[in-house]
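Q: Joint fold for the lines below.
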Amino acid sequence: MSSRIHRIVPYLFVLPPLILLAVFVYGPAFENVIFSLHSWSSINPDWEFVGLRNYRQLFANPVFWVSLSNNTLYAVISVIVQVFVALGIAAVLSAGIFRPRLNTFFRTSVFLPAILPVTVVGLLWQLIYQPSIGLIDQFLFSTGLGNLSRVWLGEEQTAIYAIILVSQWQWTGYMVALFMVAIAAIPTDLYEALEMEGATRIQQFRYVTLPGVRESTLIFTVITIFGAFKVFDIVWVMTAGGPNRASEVLGTHMYRSAFRDDVVGYSSAVATVIFVITICVGIVQLMLQRDE
Amino acid sequence: MRHHRVTALAMITLFGSAAFSVALADTTINFLHKWPEPENMAYFEPAVEAFETANPDIDVEMEAVADEPYKDKIRVLMASRQVPDVFFSWSGEFGKNFARGGRAYDITDYVYDGEWEKVFPEAALQPFKFEGRLYGVPINVDAKFMLYNTSVFEEHGIEVPETFDDLLAVCATLNEAGVVPINFGNQFPWAASHYIGEIIAKLVPNDVRTADYALTRPADELYTHTGYVEALTAFQQLNDEGCFNRGSNALTHPIARGSFLAGRGAMIYMQMVEFGRISGSPIDESGWDFFTLPAFSDGAGDPGIITGAPDGFMISSETENIDEAIQFLKFLTTPEQAKQYVDITGMTSSVKGAVTAENADERVLQGLKYLDAASGLALWLDTDMDARSTEVLLAGAQGIIGGTETPEGVMEEVRHTAKLVQQER
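A: Joint structure:
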């Protein structure tokens, strides 16, 4: 009797979160797939089953491919900066190179943007990027580099890069803080041992820090890629996907389809694609972790 | 002990008054509009209070969100079946969409009751009609004009342009003098839609244009009139010949307006409801006036048409309080309330006789005269065309400014999208 209770109890503990997940995550995700097989709008309540038509339209729409490539660009740059550059900064700040007060100053400085709301950051950088009157243009013109001036958010070639840069500015510090925690968990005697062997700081980083944060790096990479494929707010605030859809990402494409174009079935198809991409990234992460 | 008594008394009073107020307000009507700015809420809040005082059995729950988010919010509410009893709507296709989907109440018989309809000019009711039935009550009427800095015009010996070519010549003169000809912020491309909408109306015959917007022409004829490409070409000319400030795709309209008001530009295409913002600005001191966007010498459309439209309110088809909602709208459109509306907000009113020399700026009265003299109204393009084709056209307008799209290419995409929407309708 008691062994049966012992077997059941863990399931009872897991049950409430499972129910919540089923109701608020898996249920809506499944419902979204059903939505995507229908043609319907928020205004017209009539539903029409259209099979895979929304997906065919989606894959034939050049804006979808622009969005997907922007998300990919976002992911690649974010992984380079927010994972690898952040790891480098975290290693430097954790190595005790600077005096403690200076160290605290640097750590706070890089972390500070992460506590600002995305909308505030977007509006702030919109002003910095303003043509002619913005901080960047003012700097370029006052230093005789006016010929480098661009309409950063208003040109199709530069808009997405300008937004990605802001994202890196905001989130790299946050990742630095996470890496510093991961580095702090590495036993210090490993560093001491290497130091006694005469290893340089770069060698210590190569042979102790990197293997020590491998697991964290994998998780942070996956989180960053998730974030890059789900990005919406900063793009919507800064350019609303413009000009001419050049900075559109899957999130803004989905939103515009649902709330501007009023094609909710199509929008659900975009959401399904985002879901599939993030699921794939998640599966790759699980496989890599299993290999570990 | 004494504290307990005071607390108990306070609780009884609190619950008692709550129960009393619940007993007083039998019916609640939800009211959603798109004027959350303090100067506008300064009218709506007292108006709602006055209505509630006059009708103690009706409680009005008011909510307001700004222009751009309103377009999203109302759709979310529609989809989630939480449509407010009374909600704002632009006239034209935006409102017709609600009528077509059966989400707006057919209020024809309520308005045309022999009395209420006399309050409005018929021209203000017309854009709220769908298949001959009325679905909205207009609250104000707005129009778009080209404002100019009179000192700058005088300084450079510039006359008000009478044709589109004259306008291009004015831009050239101003550019030579190192003055930004037109302040233009097109980050949210509805700004371009107002230019393009009016130019289209001047270059495409009215019946063709309205049938294209309503998607009632045969699929292979949709948006095929040459006037559309000509209109986008004219817009491209404005950009390419330096009429607009640098980086218009990265500037919002309020920033462009700020530049004009600060005297950093010679002209701006602006709505009459924005006239109130000029007061006290540098441009107010240096002097300003306005003209309608000039016509084309050989346009196939209506040269006397101007961009403008009434804004108004609709009632949800799912409302359980139709009589109270009608009562509320009747209250808002009484001559007294309409005058208050003009007094406080500085906007125009669609109620006859509400805008007078006593309560409105002379420029607003002049604008209304232009409206009266206009041969027709081209409604806001972004609310007059179907939403999907509009999105394509507006993105294309940004592309034209950036030099990555051609007028022909944009219209090709618009045609393709319009056909899709027509098929699915």
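Q: Anything notable?
A: Residues 14-23 of chain B have pLDDT under 50 and may be disordered. Chain B touches chain A through 34 residues (CB under 8 Å).
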